[in-house]
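Task 17 of the worksheet. Students: predict the tertiary structure of the chain below and write it out as structure tokens. Keep your answer in the requested format; marks are given for formatting as well as content.
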Amino acid sequence: MAELTPLYNRLKEHNRSDRSSFHTPGHKCSGFFDNSLLSLDYTELPDTDALYEAEGVILETEINAARLFGAQRSLISAGGCSLAIQAMLKIASQRGGKLLCARNAHRSAVNAAALLGMDTVWLMPQGENGYTGRIMPEDVSSALKKHKDITACYITSPSYYGEISDIAAISDICHSFGVILLVDNAHGSHLAFMKKNMHPIFLGADMSACSLHKTMPVLTGGALLNIADKTLAENAKAAMSLFGSTSPSYLIMSSIDLCIGYMYGKGRAEYLECEKKVSELKTLAEKKGIRQPEGVCDPLRLTLNTASAGLCGPAQQQYFENCGIDCEFCDGENAVLLFTPFNSERDYERVRSAIVDMPVSSAVKTERERHIIPEKALTLRQAVLSASEIVDVTKSEGRIAADTACPCPPGVPVVMPGEKIDSAAVKLLESYRLEKIAVCK
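Model answer:
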């Protein structure tokens, strides 16, 4: 019988492995939810409300969420941050005009823009040392001056490595041009509860998609679309229902409800304590000589450039596994660890020991070609909806990309759908060890 339930068996086995989780989800499988939650897997009933026509208990939860995050309106998503992003772009598309979009946009945003027929102007993040980088206010200003028909600006902050863009400055610039600011805040829901409020809504964004489950005690798939402008909220439910399942999980929605209650209670204090502990680890890593991203960064994300200490390649991930640590991501140069109040003291001690005991040798430097946006041959929509085929990267020069080609984690795609693959793109794809790519027929 065991061979008939391989996924369930593997999850049970991993749960028994007694490892320290520094990846999503934010609850860390710590027992935040009691067993009674599993008995509440209901659907739309006369007394349980309906997500897309919420006027009862679901609406009450959304009102509580809006007050918690300082939004005019908060919409529950049981389809993850992807659904919140899709709804956010649908709302923006109703304004017409072009979308100024950060090049490190999540693929759900790229695909939604394609389906909605949105014409995009790409904005490249600025960064060094192999990190994703930040969107610079001056680049936003320059783009808006050049493209007078842009009506919405979409950026991702924090980046996967924790870099936070200057949302307040970008917001001011956008609003001075009559442009709305949309922020993919998938990894930053907790930013509203840090010592310094760095949540996009607080800093002036018009809409923010927040993947609660990544850094807060919410079941995977639980997210919010936070809206600061009442006029943008008027048809927001209809926008979300265009992409969302007609059978949203009540377990996920209930976990959001429980998380909101927790944050109104002891949650804020526990997140502040977590911020303090992670700050101490960052200081410890700095003293060890392990480089971290510069500038304003996510207080609960520890990004260790182990290559600066000589630890890189496959040995990097193996080192953390040997320490009993499951990272959010290891790219051979940087190890990304996500912390929440649901990490135990033993979890922290494992990280402390991993930092202190890390063997230090000469820094390993890796140079990659600079990203250059290729020539646009088709619109996003034309490329995404066209017939496609998979070819070897080595044979892709001159072809038109049918999908994003991006190193994992979500970083800066080398090519976007509709762009012509040139020799520079092929070289960069090969440097990321990408072997196959989808191209239009």
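Marker's comment: The longest helix spans residues 250-288. The mean pLDDT is 95.
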